[in-house]
Amino acid sequence: EYRNPLLHHDYKRLPNGNHLILLWRHLPDGVAEKIQGGHHHHDDPEHMWGDVVQEIDPAGNPVREWRSWEHLDPETDRLCPLESYKEWTHANSIDVTPDGNWLLSFRLTSTVALVDPNSGDFKWKWGPPVLSHQHAATWLDTGRVLIFDNGCHRKRGPSFSQVLEVDPETSEIGWTYK
User: Fold this and answer.
1) Contact between residue 115 and residue 128 where contact means Cβ atoms under 8 Å apart
2) Contact 62, 55 (CB under 8 A)
């Protein structure tokens, strides 16, 4: 059992018995002011939340930690303009590829990404303008990524949901259902 009030949305058990978990954490001073997009709302909290991936051992001790704000770009990883400044990215799924990379879905920036857990660097980032508030990025045995795209807040045209299969090597959509 592991309890943490900042844990949210998803976790993944690793072959070594550890777990990857998604956590919220207040962004460090000076970061929120640089984030592009979004809007301020009268009931926004005092601090903006950011996402953390933490690997914990079976006793609940942190083994390693990845902080999204250390790798995202506040100018290009824009917050949806219809969202307030409560949180920046809203990670909602995590998966692990056969070679150990982390597949993350960031709903409020409409981005899916592969992260190298050793360097923390992005190996692939994809989404805007195709995705709009997606969930459930899943690694497939074919080496492609399956994504459920909610479709809300599309910048152009009517809202619609879709399921996409994307090749992270080429960023090409191999299959879609709308």
Assistant:
1) no
2) yes
- SS3 state at 34: helix
Task: Evaluate if pTM is beyond 0.90.
Answer: yes
37: closest CA among 83, 86, 89? Answer: 83
Residue 136 sits at φ, ψ, to 5 deg, of 55, 50
Token pair of 167, please?
């090749």
pLDDT digits (tens, 9 = 90+) for 126-136: 999 999 999 99
**Are the CB atoms for 25 and 31 separated by under 8 Å?**
no
3-state secondary structure of 37: strand
One-letter amino acid at 178 equals K
pLDDT single digits (tens) 145-158: 999 999 888 777 77
Structure tokens at 55: 């690997």
